[in-house]
Amino acid sequence: MKKYVVVLCVMLILGGLGLVLVSGYLNHKKEQTYTYSTKVIGNPLMGYAPQATDEEVSKDVELLYVDVTWAELEPKEGQFQWEAIEKANQFDRWRSEGKHVVFRFILDYPTEEKHKDIPNWLYESLDHPGAWYSTSYGKGFSPNYADKKLQSYYKKAVQAMAQRWGDDGFIAYIELGGVGHWGEWHVNTAEGVPSLPRFAELENFVSPWLTADFTGSQFLMRRPFTTAKKNGLGLYNDMAGSISDTKEWLKWIESGGSYNQTGESVLVAMSDYWQSAPVGGELTSGISMKTLMSTRLSETRKWVRQSHTSFLGPKVAEKNSEGYYQLLSDLGYRLWISKAVLKGYGKQKTLSLTWHNAGQAPFYKDWSVRLQVVDSSGKVLDSAPFSMDLRKILPDQSQTITNELPKSFVTADGNLRGQLRLAIIDPMTDKPAVKLLMEGQESSREISLF
C-alpha cells in the first residue's frame, strides 16, 4: 500500500512538472500576423527603367537603362571611353542611391542621319565590313556579323567591359543586343539590308558574355533561341503593348519555331523560363503612349502580366498618365510575410516566417535576408542571417521557412534582447534594400517582427 502511494505521488509530481514545462513552452510562443498591402511601390531590380542620362526620375524608379554603341565605347583601338560613358549615364549617382542598371551593347542603331555604330578603326580593318542602309527604320550601317575579325574584336570589347563594370552587381541585367537594328536580332531585309548569317555565327555575339566575369548580372535574349534555353537566360520584348507582336513572341516561347532572319529552327519552347530567369523589354514605339495608357491600358496590362515582365525601359509610361501606377503594379515581384512565429523555451528558440509573392515574377537574385535585434533607440545589438532562398518564392505560392534564432538574440530568462527586425540586403551596398508589402510597413526597408 505504501509503495502504491509513493508511486502515485511520484506520478502526480512528474505529471505536474510536465504540465509546467508544457505551459512554460506555450507561454514562450509568440505569433504575429500581417495584412497584405495593395500599395504600388518601387523596389530594386524591377519596375520602370528610364534612361540613365535623365536628370530627374520618379521616386519609384530603382532601375536605369544604359545602351552604349561600340563607336562610343572604343573610338580608337584599345582606348575605351569609360569616364565619359560613366559620367553621361551618372554611374556614381545611381550607385550612391543604391540603384541598378539594365545594359545593352549595340552595333547598329538606326537614326535620321547617315552614320555607323562600329568604330572607324574597326570598319577600316575589315575586308568585308558590312552594308550602309537608308530605310523606313532610319539610316545606319549593318555590320557583317560573319566576319571573324569582327567577332574577335567584339569578344575583347566584352572582356574589357566586364573588367571595368562587372565586379559589384551594379549592372543587374544585360540584354544581349549585339546583333541587328537596335540590338533586336533582326535587320530590314525587305528594304535591302543584307540578311544575317547563320545562327552559328550569331552565337559568337552571345558566348563572350557568358564567359566574362559579370558578378551578379543576368543575361537576356530577344527571342527564345536554343542558346537561351541551354544557358538558362532571360528574354526581352521590345514590343510590349503591341498585341500582335507580343502574341507572336509568346507563341515562340510556348512552341518554338523558325527564326525568320536565317530560316533556321533555332527558336525553342521554354515556357517556364521566367520562373528562374528575368523578363524585360520596353513599351512599343508603334503605338502612342497616350493610347497605351488609356484606351489600350487593359490590354497592355494583360500582356505584361502574361509575359511575367519584371522591368520595362527605356520607353516607359509617362508619370502623369492614368495607367502609370496600374502598369507598375503588374511588374515584377511583390513579396510579403503573412505570419511570424517565435517559439521555444529559454535560449532555444525558432523563428518561422510565412512568405508570399503577390507579383507576376520571382525575385531573381540570391540576396541574403538578415535579422537584427535593436534596442529602444534603434541601436543594433546583434545581427545574423536568416537562411532562405528568395528566388524560390514563386508568384501565388507561399512558403513557411524556419530558422533557429541565435542565442545571442535572447536574454537568460528567455526574452528577446530588443526589437526583432528583418531586411533583405543588396550585396552591392550591404544595406537593406527591398520593401515588403505589409500594411503599415510598405515604406520601410526594415520590417519589424516582434
From TrEMBL:
Gene3D superfamilies cross-referenced by the UniProt entry: Glycosidases (3.20.20.80)
Pfam families reported for this sequence: DUF4832
Name the residues that span the membrane: none
Q: Which domain of life is it from?
A: Bacteria
Residues in a coiled coil are none
| InterPro entries found in the cross-reference section | DUF4832 (IPR032267), GH (IPR017853)
The chain positions of domain DUF4832 read: 234-427
Q: What is this protein called?
A: DUF4832 domain-containing protein
Q: Which SUPFAM superfamilies match?
A: (Trans)glycosidases (SSF51445)
